[in-house]
Amino acid sequence: MKIKIISGFLGAGKTTCIRNVLKKADGNMAVIVNEFGDIGIDAEAVNKGNVVDMVELPSGCICCTLAKDLVSAVKEIKTKFNPDRLVIEPSGLAVPSGILEALEPIKEKYELEFEAIIGIVDADGFLSNIHSGLFGDFYTDQLANSDIILINKADLVNEKTIKAIEEELRKYNFHAIILTTVNCETDLPDFIREHGTEYLHLHFDHDFDSVAITTDEAFDHNLLVEIMEEMKAGKYGVIYRAKGIYKKSGGGFEKMDYVQGNYDFEEFPEAEGSKLIFIGKDFDRDALKEKLTS
Question: Which of 158, 170, 263, 294 has minimal Cβ neighbours within 10 Å of its Cβ?
Answer without folding.
Answer: 294
